Amino acid sequence: MSRKFRTKEWAIMMFIANDNNLGEFTATKIDEIASVGSTRAADVIIQFDTPGPSAIRRMRLSKGRRFPLRKRQAETNTGDKRTLIRFADLTLDDFHPRRSMLTIYNHGTGFGIADDKTVRPIDAPAAVEPARRCPGHRRRPPIFWSATNRETALAVLDVSDAEPVPGNDDALDLLELKAAMQTIVRKHGRVELLAFDACLMGTFEGAYQLRNHAHIMVASQSNIPGPGCRFASTFALMRDESLSTATIAKALADDVTPVTEDEYSAMAVLDLEQADELAEAISVLADVLIQAMQTDQDALSNINLAHLSALHFLDSETIDLFDFCERLTKTMSENERVVEAATEVQEAIEELVLHNNPRGAVVEGARGISITLPRRNQLSDLYRQLDFPRETSWIDFLNMYLEKQYPPIAEEPELLVAPVPPPPPPPVVDEVLEPAIF
Question: What does each C-alpha distance from 200 to 82, 227, 268, 372 come to in angstroms?
Fold first, then answer.
């Protein structure tokens, strides 16, 4: 039986899945949230898991007080969509807000949210530094392992040949996340604000996948510092019930942990109502680029130049979509159709991205939304199953461009050389004994 709390403007659901190396930040994260906590306008409800066989705890936070909700759950897999659904169900059954906000805190890849211990390929160096938001090494996307479903690869590339470190790890990929959000929305209505306190989740593939389940999305195109977003000032701002969701989302995007010399972040606020328009513009651009590659012998090299010079995000196979289009208008300036299509994509991006906040030299110029454009021809099955590739011509462009620009390297044939016989043994010589002299 659900509890009956007074209806407020907001219910803020914070899904803190830190059963991995982000566990070191859990206590600090909760303390920061609780410094403001629930107010007259908003209830702040958290559910968190930490490393090891610890119980899942769910509570309502107020300034100076933590109010447990229901009883503790046993150790639960927060990479299972049912765990997220249950958290949202319990919260929205207990609290009946006019607007809801869901924040997911964990590692991110752009195509999924990691859960229990994120796992490195066996050839990756062990971390000797404090926890980064995107583990692994910079030369290939992080790999996330599920003991029950090895085929779930969260990287955009097909890396099925890499052997993961064994473990009981799982993750929420975008297919599962959409299924979870569908279930939540079907019962409780559309989420007003969906925020990813995680790396690399600011992809258009993700925004398009979740466009019918939330109105506004906050995410980073790049990695973000380990402690992630800060919430206290945003929660204080939410005391004003008249503020729009977009205003609150912008405040959250601006309050990410400050970066140091070797850190960076690229938070952005996305209006998911505009995702379909941008998808249509990208599809038109893809068709035009395909035609150019079929009719213009220089098109491939010009597209590749725009690709390689566009802003690229470390630990991923994504680039800044606006910057890519800007460079296409220069490298293919003689093709009016390409210039027109690229400009229309830029205009649609300006409608989608309500606000962006790049911090750090390596993300300077980021415009708020990324797209997949790898530098090798190994798209994963997971990527091909996402809504955006399935419903637009972008996948057709990727297939043609990657096949032409990054063809598979033919294996060198083995040389058939007759085996060299071993040398014959040396001849046996009988030992001649000289007569003894007395």
Answer: 23, 15, 11, 11
pLDDT at 119: 37
The neighbouring-strand residues paired with 378 are none
Q: Angle 176-216-347 (CA atoms, 0-180°, nearest 5)? A: 110
Residue 386 is assigned to a structural domain of this protein: yes
Let me know whether 97 and 25 are in one domain: yes
Residue closest to 115 by CA, chosen among 125, 106, 124, 102: 106
Instruction: State the angle between helix axes of 321-331 and 336-352 in degrees (0 to 180), rounded to the nearest 10.
Output: 160
How does residue 281 score in pLDDT terms, banded at 50, 70 and 90?
very high
pTM: 0.81
pLDDT digits (tens, 9 = 90+) for 168-182: 567 788 999 999 999
How many domains does the chain fold into?
A: 2
Which structural domain range is residue 20 located in? Answer: 10-120+170-273
Collect contacts of 238-245 with beta carbons under 8 A, ≥24 apart: 238/9, 238/10, 238/12, 238/39, 238/41, 238/42, 239/39, 239/40, 239/41, 239/42, 240/41, 241/9, 241/41, 245/99, 245/192, 245/193, 245/215, 245/216
List, for residues 54-105, the tens digit of each pLDDT value. Answer: 666 788 888 877 666 665 555 567 778 988 999 999 999 999 999 999 999 8
Distance CA 349, CA 356 (A): 11
Residue 29 sits in a domain of what CATH number? 3.40.50.11970
